[in-house]
């Protein structure tokens, strides 16, 4: 039985057959390298999008999600990159940010469950998060003595995000919050946007785990 994430990927590939790569890449801020071949960067991975496949082409930072998530994760990520190219939006970022659940109209109330990987990897060490953030090119916007740190990142060319890191103490645990520009829902419908969110969170967590493993090789 074909898994759902494979069916979604195959559907995206079918839609790409009628996509005007030149027009879409220009509007969505992606690099066209030939008539029907586009390059997109995601967390310092390079993917090629063609009408035959969406494929990982290289990694500036080598990372991978946990093995039990790997197959579904890769298909989900490739599908959402295809949906991004297929977007008909021409909306510019509004520079007004909100949590993911803002877009769900009450159906999806809280994205804390989606943040588990980030809090598991970075929740006890802000310096680990800062190291990963700097490696992928995030920009520190605000840092307060109260332990609140705000970072901004271009997740995709027209999709800025913010991550707010609240350092915990003896009374309150560390909390991370991911915020999306309000124009994001004009680029992707809620379901693929939620998938993109999951890919971002798991990928960023994987970067932290990979960096830790490189600094602490097994004997």
How many helical elements? 7
- Widest β-sheet, arrangement of strands: 5-9-8-7-6
Mean pLDDT: 90
Instruction: Name the helicity range.
Output: 25-40%
The description of the largest β-sheet is:
5 strands, antiparallel
Order of helices and strands: HHEEEEHEHHEEEEHH
Note the beta-strand portion.
15-25%
The total count of strands amounts to 9
Category by helix and strand content:
alpha+beta
Question: What report would you give on this structure?
Answer:
The protein is α+β, with helices and mostly antiparallel strands and 219 residues long. The protein contains seven helices and nine strands. It has helices at 4-16, 21-28, 70-86, 116-122, 126-135, 184-187, 190-215, and strands at 31-34, 37-42, 45-50, 54-59, 97-99, 139-143, 148-156, 159-166, 175-181. The strands form two sheets. The protein has a five-stranded antiparallel β-sheet with strand order 5-9-8-7-6, covered by helices on one side. Helix 4 (116-122) packs parallel to helix 7 and helix 5 (126-135) crosses helix 7.
Short characterization:
The protein is of the alpha+beta class and 219 residues long.
Q: Can you lay out the helices and strands and say which pair or pack?
A:
Elements: H1 4-16, H2 21-28, E1 31-34, E2 37-42, E3 45-50, E4 54-59, H3 70-86, E5 97-99, H4 116-122, H5 126-135, E6 139-143, E7 148-156, E8 159-166, E9 175-181, H6 184-187, H7 190-215
Antiparallel strand pairs: 1-2, 2-3, 3-4, 5-9, 6-7, 7-8, 8-9
């Amino acid at each position: 039985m074909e898994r759902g994430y494979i069916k979604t990927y195959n559907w995206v590939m079918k839609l790409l057959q009628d996509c005007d790569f030149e027009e879409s890449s220009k509007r969505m801020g992606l690099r066209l390298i030939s008539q029907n071949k586009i390059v997109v960067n995601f967390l310092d991975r390079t993917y090629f999008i063609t009408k035959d496949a969406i494929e990982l082409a290289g990694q500036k930072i080598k990372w991978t999600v946990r093995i039990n998530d790997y197959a579904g994760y890769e298909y989900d990520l490739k599908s959402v990159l295809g949906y991004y190219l297929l977007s008909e939006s021409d909306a510019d970022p509004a520079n007004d940010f909100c949590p993911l659940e803002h877009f769900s109209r009450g159906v999806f109330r809280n994205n804390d469950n989606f943040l588990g990987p980030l809090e598991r990897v970075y929740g006890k060490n802000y310096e680990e998060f800062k190291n990963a953030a700097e490696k992928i090119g995030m920009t520190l916007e605000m840092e307060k003595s109260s332990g609140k740190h705000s970072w901004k990142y271009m997740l995709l060319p027209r999709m800025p995000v913010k991550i707010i890191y609240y350092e915990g103490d003896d009374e309150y645990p560390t909390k991370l919050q991911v915020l999306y520009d309000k124009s994001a829902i004009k680029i992707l419908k809620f379901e693929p946007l939620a998938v993109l969110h999951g890919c971002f969170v798991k990928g960023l967590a994987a970067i932290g785990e990979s960096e830790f493993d490189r600094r602490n090789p097994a004997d």
